[in-house]
Amino acid sequence: MPSTRYSKRRRVSSPAKEEPPAYNSSPDELAASSDHEKYHSHRAPSKPLREGRGRKRSYADIYSANSTAVASEDSHSELAGPPRASEEIPNVLITAAASGEDSPDELDHTTPTFFRRPFRASFSKESRRPHEKFTSQSPSPPPYSRLSSPIATPRTPLIRPPQYEPYKEKLVLKGHRKGVAAVRFSPDGRLIASCSADATIRIWETATGKHLHTLEGHLAGISTIAWSPDSKTLASGSDDKSIRLWDVSTGKAHPHLLLSHSSYIYALSFSPRGNMLASGSYDEALFLWDVRTTRLMRSLPAHSDPIGGVDFVRDGTLIVSCAGDGLIRVWDTATGQCLRTLVHEDNAAVTGVRFSPNGKFVLAWTLDGCVRLWNYVEGRCVKTYQGHTNSKYSIGGAFGVYGGEDGVEQRACVVSGSEDGNILCWDVQSKDTLQIIKGHQGVVLGVDTLNKEGLIVSGGIDKTVRVWERVREGAGDSADPVGAAIGALKVCEQEAAGMA
């Protein structure tokens, strides 16, 4: 009979003449099944057994005999016989978390990904299988007895919820003569780029804040910048209607400009392979460029108002754009076809948009003071984050993470600037405000995250670029009550060892 997984309560219609099925269930399931034990303990032999002269043995006699046999030291070899191949048990039992529908809490990132750690079964010395205690002179026992299943249920380690680690100011970078419109970490995390209304781009070292280059060449203010995936090229879009490509190592611009837009360039994004560049402009058009040849590949009449943001999905097959018309549109990169249009009932102007790192959601900033998370496949808004001020300026943000160390669950968060000079962090799933970071004097226009290093960079109208560092557990300053409280938390060594 083929192996079959049965429910916990098994019912046998006619146990008198059937051989037991070869179970492939885990030992803890067999141990938990009282009907299984009862079935094997009360099963009748293939032929009637006789005792004495012609008297048939009753089931009570069989059960009594079996109970006596179980109590004996040689019950394994006498009753169960040699083990069957189908009864072999793996050395380690793994209980994986059940997979369900995608939710905003399962957002994975390129550096640490969002996951639920698999549960690992761990057996103590006391829960070893009985046959492991037999000596070499003892007959070879079966993996488990048919009459008793003494294997202990494995202990499921507890994954603790994360404790949010607040950010504190690490560096203040000064040098721009006007407000900072956008800031970006390089993909390798070594550099920070900032652009300003003073028509310059500045390159900073992430670790020390050292100023490396000032990129000059645009004739008007610069509203947007984007890094190539290899961190070697930087693209910038300006109010002079041009897009420039820069060699970051030398600080010099590519000799050919990307010229086709008829108005201000307001949004840029590189494809994951770095061979395409998407640009959005006040001329309401979405352009796709070939980076190698600097030629226009495709022009999409995307919106009926100036485009505020564009972004590529993680595999480069989709592009998302948003505009002042309140629409968010998802495009097929290969064909230029609009696959989905997202619009909220309030129809507020959308000023920024980003794909989630797993490519399943879209995060959008709107001028009604909300940040919304969209399931673009189903076309519905799944989360709305509030608490910041945003009614006039185009404000940016990013996804972040917290937790994930030493058996602690890892969770996603949303980081956004605000017109009141604050930076807000929300838990993606619960929408709780995790922290309000204060430091800027005026509107915070650009925010980016470097999750593997626990850093946030921000730029604002106060002409400064600020780097914020996460306060790790155990590293809190005694002058900071929040940091001191977090530093005082102790991790249970027993739980940490069980999750290692």
Automatic annotation (TrEMBL):
<dbReference type="InterPro" id="IPR020472">
    <property type="entry name" value="WD40_PAC1"/>
</dbReference>
<feature type="repeat" description="WD">
    <location>
        <begin position="173"/>
        <end position="214"/>
    </location>
</feature>
<dbReference type="InterPro" id="IPR001680">
    <property type="entry name" value="WD40_rpt"/>
</dbReference>
<feature type="compositionally biased region" description="Basic residues">
    <location>
        <begin position="1"/>
        <end position="12"/>
    </location>
</feature>
<dbReference type="InterPro" id="IPR059122">
    <property type="entry name" value="Beta-prop_WDR5-like"/>
</dbReference>
<dbReference type="InterPro" id="IPR036322">
    <property type="entry name" value="WD40_repeat_dom_sf"/>
</dbReference>
<dbReference type="GO" id="GO:0048188">
    <property type="term" value="C:Set1C/COMPASS complex"/>
</dbReference>
<protein>
    <recommendedName>
        <fullName>Mitochondrial division protein 1</fullName>
    </recommendedName>
</protein>
<dbReference type="InterPro" id="IPR015943">
    <property type="entry name" value="WD40/YVTN_repeat-like_dom_sf"/>
</dbReference>
<feature type="repeat" description="WD">
    <location>
        <begin position="437"/>
        <end position="469"/>
    </location>
</feature>
<keyword id="KW-0853">WD repeat</keyword>
<feature type="repeat" description="WD">
    <location>
        <begin position="300"/>
        <end position="341"/>
    </location>
</feature>
<comment type="function">
    <text>Involved in mitochondrial fission. Acts as an adapter protein required to form mitochondrial fission complexes. Formation of these complexes is required to promote constriction and fission of the mitochondrial compartment at a late step in mitochondrial division.</text>
</comment>
<feature type="repeat" description="WD">
    <location>
        <begin position="343"/>
        <end position="384"/>
    </location>
</feature>
<feature type="repeat" description="WD">
    <location>
        <begin position="215"/>
        <end position="256"/>
    </location>
</feature>
<feature type="region of interest" description="Disordered">
    <location>
        <begin position="1"/>
        <end position="160"/>
    </location>
</feature>
<dbReference type="Pfam" id="PF25175">
    <property type="entry name" value="Beta-prop_WDR5"/>
</dbReference>
<dbReference type="GO" id="GO:0042393">
    <property type="term" value="F:histone binding"/>
</dbReference>
<keyword id="KW-0677">Repeat</keyword>
<feature type="repeat" description="WD">
    <location>
        <begin position="258"/>
        <end position="299"/>
    </location>
</feature>
<dbReference type="InterPro" id="IPR019775">
    <property type="entry name" value="WD40_repeat_CS"/>
</dbReference>
<comment type="similarity">
    <text>Belongs to the WD repeat MDV1/CAF4 family.</text>
</comment>
<feature type="compositionally biased region" description="Basic and acidic residues">
    <location>
        <begin position="123"/>
        <end position="134"/>
    </location>
</feature>
<feature type="domain" description="WDR5-like beta-propeller">
    <location>
        <begin position="173"/>
        <end position="469"/>
    </location>
</feature>
<feature type="repeat" description="WD">
    <location>
        <begin position="414"/>
        <end position="436"/>
    </location>
</feature>
